[in-house]
Write a structure and sequence with these properties.
Layout: H1 13-25, H2 36-39, E1 68-75, H3 79-88, E2 92-93, E3 98-100, E4 103-110, H4 112-120, E5 125-130, H5 136-139, H6 143-156, E6 157-158, E7 166-171, E8 190-192, H7 208-218, H8 221-226, E9 231-232, E10 236-241, H9 254-268, E11 274-278, H10 293-303, E12 310-314, H11 329-333, E13 346-352, E14 366-367, E15 373-374, E16 394-397, E17 402-403, E18 417-420, E19 429-432, H12 434-452, H13 458-467, H14 473-476, H15 484-494, H16 501-505, E20 511-520, E21 523-526, E22 535-538, E23 542-545, H17 550-556, E24 560-568, E25 590-595, H18 602-618, E26 641-649, H19 650-655, E27 658-664, E28 682-691, H20 700-706
Parallel strand pairs: 6-9, 7-10, 7-11, 8-10, 11-12, 12-13, 13-16
Antiparallel strand pairs: 1-4, 1-5, 2-4, 3-4, 13-15, 14-17, 18-19, 20-28, 21-22, 23-27, 24-26, 24-28, 25-27
Helix pairs in contact: 7-12, 9-10
Amino acid sequence: MVRSTVFVPERVADHFVKKVEEYRDEEGPGGQPKNQRLVASVVDARLGGVRAIFTDDRSLFPADRQQTWWEVWVREERLSEFLRIAGHLEIRVKEHALEFIERTVVLALATPEELQVLIENSSAVAELRLAKDVPSFFLEMGPRESADWAHNLAERIQPADPAAPAVCILDSGATRGHPLLSASLAAEDQHTYDPDWGVNDSAYWNGHGTAMCGVALLGNVQVALMRGGQVQLEHHLETVKILPPTGENDPDLYGVITAESIAQVERHAPRRRRVFCMAVSSTFALSRGRPSAWSAAIDTICYGDGTPRLMVMAAGNLRTEIQAAEYPDANDLAEAENPSQAWNALVVGAFTDKVTILDEDYFDWVPLAPAGEISPASRTSTLWERQWPIRPDVVFEGGNFGHDGINPAYAIDDLQSLTTHFRPQNRLFQSFGDTSDATAQCANMAARIMAARRELRPETVRALIIHSAEWTRAMRARFDRANFNSKLSLLRRYGWGVPDLDRALMSTATDATLMIQDELRPLRLVRKTPRAKGEIKSGYMNLHQLPWPRDELLKLSDHPVEMRVTLSYFIEGNPGERGWTKRHRYASHGLRFAVKRALEGPDTFQSRINRAAEIEEQGQARVDPGGDDWVLGTLRNRGSIHSDVWYGTAADLATRDAIAVYPVGGWWRERHDEERRWERSVRYSLLVSIRAPGAGEDIYTPIAIQIGIDIPAT
């Protein structure tokens, strides 16, 4: 049997189909079917395979079943078809694309076998190449060429408006003279804890602060370099040098140094909106999630006693050699570092999508972590006692390690990110990775949310980042929804997954997010007589009616939908261990949410909430106040941010039209002191999203109309 690959130009593709139809339906000379000589000899005809349309170096073609990032050249008019089929096959496609004449280039993560299935079901793909988004291209340049690239980008950068927010980096200082940083980092915005240290970056710390700045400002530095056009920035930089030029700080001073450094920045620019970013961490005082003096100081800083602050911190990295055979068990055995025990901070771990090795020096090496999995150096809270917060909260790209099957794994350049070098007179770029890289990316996202929505509280920005996060396919493969321990392990390794800026900021026709910024009094004083001292008890709940488009949802009937709820608030921490025998006594208070069930009346709803709060306060067996079909249930009730997803039908969702926020426990309840903390109100941010993928019914517009949002004309 002879096989051949035939290229049929798109403009005449129908001609081949017509020949086959004529063979089937028409009679030719001698009574034989028309076109018999052509068609009868074809035993089988199918669309070309992956190898047939792979136009790159053949030696780069991935091995069978190896997940790889592909450069997919899609026929322009069939992009939506490609995205639809890729979605059905769970092939990840990066949202950003390049537009050319008649072609759109997207990056897709798939095995050759998965792409083959896609190609067999669609003619949308015109060409395949291997994605070469590795930093080696810039790292191997000579000084003059790299300077040309850097200055080209610097000329295209449009600095943010003076009133824009800032990312404040607490690290080893920064080199303001780098051409990509100078316009966004004013000299007066560089600070230091100790005046004798200066503000510039240090070789002792390998220029870590400057590396953080490049990512925090530009996000993906490599993409910014390679794309043409103006780069409009939406935030500025500030830096505080909290690490000495050589040596280490006294661990007893970690909290003091952090607090004083933040106060110094705020004294200089008190009105500026900012996110504090700190990837400095320590193995000192680790105790399976129990608060430390440093983490308690972070909670105090974020709580702010009326001036809350958003702080993004790293979960920390493994500090020993990484053996391929020990991955990912070594990550689960390395507990998140101090001060990630802080309840109010947004703690960031690292995952990786980087699996492409092109460097010929490592031609026989393979990536240690599969795409979508935990980055090899990232720490987790798997060993923490169950009552302490989930850490990390989210994960961002932190690079990968390569290995040869014999020696310890190594962070080769092809599997890292690109950022700014602290000695631009010698080198302009360097590779970067681990949870430091991930934390800087998270701070970048937080600042962009602040820039887009000026009215958002720090609690809300934190909520939006977590609310937008999703677990990757590789993460979900480890997930057993019916198993409590499986769900807890998933959370303590990956948090709530990988955030997405577009999801955080946008609502589409079949994906709507309701955002509520409110407050309540978690406690009240009950006196039996006017002269009695009284007893401090839990306060009242807030009930929010959900403006669901009932008619539209009922039309969808049994169509599957999902609802996601995220509740975010800051607590006042109590670092003293006295009173920790009760579960939540480190926190001043706790808040929970519950959604009204189908056919549940107001009184029944109220009784269920009261019972759930009472049981949690008494530390009894787990109960799920949310009802059936919640993914996490009571697992979500750790720390001071709670997020969960409910799955059901559109008709069922239409009747779940109210959500309650209610208080539980806390050490404020036990204090009858002169500060009268029980009288305080506490702020919270509540996000509720509904999604009806594939429904085709517009659910966003009816919600927007009901709550008074103007709908732009189309």
